[in-house]
Amino acid sequence: MTELLINYLHFSYTKDMEVLKGIDLHLKDQTTAIVGQNGAGKTTFVKLLKGLLQPTEGAIQFNGSNTKDYTAANLAEHIGMVFQNPNDQIFKSKVLNEVMFGPLNIGQEENEARDKALEALKKVGLEDRLEKNPYDLSLSERKMISIAAVLAMDTDVVIFDEPTMGQDFAGKERIKEIISELRSLGKLVLCILHDMDFAAEVFERTIVFNQGNVLLDGSTRDVFSDENVLEQAFLEQPHVMQIAKNIGLDGIYTTESELVAALERAWFD
């Protein structure tokens, strides 16, 4: 079982500004959304998990070993991260080469890296763009390239930073399928999100960050039903919950299908 144990995690970019203020979390099993306003500490937190930053105080254990004992390159074999802006991640002139770079860099043989890259590009719907320059493609397609590049590395932990950015309905549905498949393979999936509807529909667990602290952590259904805490974090409930409340429907609903089923019961009972 893949797990991350975070103990008393602090981080400061400068002495006068503490970004994370003693985070304690145990991440395992469940797909997990990390939500909160800009500046809450979400991206800093996942960069620490990835080894791109080092804690000011406290520790992160990956499967029982302190991540300080890993180099960033070693940790890359186990923890993959899709950045919010794909332009920060893409630098090759051909799509296939871009997606193969990560697997090759962590020691996969060229044939294996190519097979993994082709499989990943098929999952994101870009199998016909192999020879294209990524910067000739749209922002949403570049985002899919960066997702494919991490999928091809086949890491134990996959972190997404705003994966739905720039995606239309079809793109979001594809990302849902990818997350579901990763979950079925036993991967630990973490995702930073501002899209509360996507978080409510897709993730089993939700963690609310606010001003460098964990304000709330629990099942997604329970977290999004707690209006008072969400207001403290300047977050809104998913639209399905808002609709149910506005029409006077009792219960907690995280997906459109749940809401429709409840309406049908109310109408026909």
From TrEMBL:
It is a peripheral membrane protein. Pfam families: ABC_tran (PF00005). InterPro entries: AAA+_ATPase, ABC_transporter-like_ATP-bd, ABC_transpr_CbiO/EcfA_su, ECF_ABC_transporter_ATP-bd, P-loop_NTPase. SMART domains: AAA. Keywords: ATP-binding, Cell membrane, Membrane, Nucleotide-binding, Translocase, Transport. It is found in: Cell membrane. GO terms for cellular component: ATP-binding cassette (ABC) transporter complex. Residues 4-236 form the ABC transporter domain. PROSITE patterns: ABC_TRANSPORTER_2. The keyword Protein biosynthesis does not apply. Coiled coil: none annotated. Signal peptide: none annotated. Belongs to the ABC transporter superfamily. This is Energy-coupling factor transport system ATP-binding protein. It comes from Lentibacillus halodurans.
